[in-house]
Design brief:
Butyryl-CoA Dehydrogenase, subunit A, domain 3, 3 domains, 4-stranded antiparallel sheet, globular, Butyryl-Coa Dehydrogenase, subunit A, domain 1, Butyryl-CoA Dehydrogenase, subunit A, domain 2, single chain
Length: 371
């Protein structure tokens, strides 16, 4: 008989407990300052590497933990319960960058880059452009074959981890006449000639997570840094994002858990009319509705992750999980603000940040309209 979706194995429980301890002990004291200054604490990034959170699925032979995809989802959820800015740092590293290399990289690329991504170097995934968001295959970045290397020119927008990253998966069209079948994935290092990081965005939510422009101005990329085959980058991008959507779902259930937890504590402590506000039936109805939506979102996300690990089709389930969990997180965080009353509207209390952070779930790695 199969284990229920939300029932964790002993190893999974131990792993979740260790991530929760880190999130409460090291991350929570820094959340407010990082949000205010819109910058991750470099020490936290180092600790994420030291704890093995930046190479969860990466096999041990490449310096990773050798765990499964579901384990990565647990880490993203637990971190996002405290601060989704750190949740998305770990999410992009594992579900996009590492996954792309694990699936499409050759042995030399895996040995060279997965070791670095597991131990010290942050990665980023550079697909979006000013005029190619949802229509990702309309990208205008071009790659020209120059013998032993490609020369890439273009600009990328909305690149998560752009400020901290040193290794980028960049998508460019090497044969525009072939349309989307010319799109090719490249492994680009921050130190490559012609590569630079542009404007850092000033965002509504997940403010400590950097979102930047990437500029490629006659950027020279060795031919051995083509990821997969020339002209098959469209497959790399789409199939990697299928897994990434489950990671976004994990972020959203983490946010929802954080907001609901804060609302439960506050409504138990806040007294009105000589009793705690959670003793009023109208408030109980709201809390019950929030808990129900969270549980439904969790089931969708866990199911998609378990299907992926089982080698079964999961694309539809991943899209459903992202769509529902992002809506649930936004609703739960919004209700949490209302339950706090005026206190929920100020930055002295945590729920307004959960609401700001939740909005991105309906936008990145495929908008809700695209699911």
């Amino acid at each position: 008989m199969g284990r229920p979706l939300t029932s964790l194995s002993e190893d999974e429980e131990m792993f979740r407990g260790s991530v929760r301890e880190f999130a409460e002990g090291e991350l929570r004291p820094r959340v407010e300052e990082m949000d205010e200054h819109a910058k991750l604490d470099p020490l936290l990034i180092k600790q994420c590497f030291d704890l093995g959170l930046m190479g969860i699925e990466t096999p041990e032979e490449y310096g990773g933990a050798g765990a499964n995809f579901f384990t990565a989802i647990l880490a993203v959820e637990e971190l996002s319960r405290v601060d989704p800015s750190v949740g998305v740092l770990v999410d992009v590293q594992n579900t996009l960058v590492n996954n792309a290399l694990l699936r499409w990289g050759n042995e030399e690329q895996k040995k060279k880059y997965l070791q670095q991504l597991s131990s010290a170097r942050v990665g980023a995934y550079a697909l979006s452009e000013a005029n190619s968001g949802s229509d990702a295959f309309a990208l205008q970045t071009r790659a020209v074959d120059a013998g032993d290397h490609f020369v890439i020119n273009g600009r990328k927008l909305w690149i998560t981890n752009g400020l901290e990253a040193e290794i980028f998966i960049v998508f460019a069209n090497a044969n525009p006449e072939a349309g989307y079948r010319g799109i090719t994935a490249f492994i680009v290092e921050k130190g490559f000639e012609g590569f630079s990081v542009g404007k850092k965005e000033n965002k509504l939510g997940i403010r400590a997570s950097s979102t930047t422009e990437i500029i490629l101005d006659d950027c020279r990329v060795p031919k051995e840094n083509v990821l997969g085959e020339v002209g098959k980058g469209y497959k790399v991008s789409i199939e990697t994002l299928n897994e990434g959507r489950i990671g976004i779902g994990a972020q959203m259930i983490g946010i929802a858990r954080g907001a609901l937890g804060a609302a439960l504590l506050y409504t138990a402590e806040r007294q009105q009319f000589d009793k705690p506000v959670n003793e009023f039936q109208g408030v109980q109805f709201q809390l019950a509705e929030m808990a129900t939506e969270l549980e439904a979102a969790r089931l969708l996300v866990y199911n998609a992750a378990r299907l992926k690990d089982a080698g079964q089709p999961f694309v539809k389930e991943a899209a459903m999980a992202k769509l529902f969990s992002s809506r649930a997180a936004e609703r739960i965080a919004s209700l949490a603000i209302e339950l706090y009353g005026g206190y929920g509207f100020v930055k002295d209390y945590p729920v307004e940040k959960f609401w700001r952070d939740s909005k991105i779930g309906a936008i990145y790695e495929g908008t809700s309209n695209m699911q």
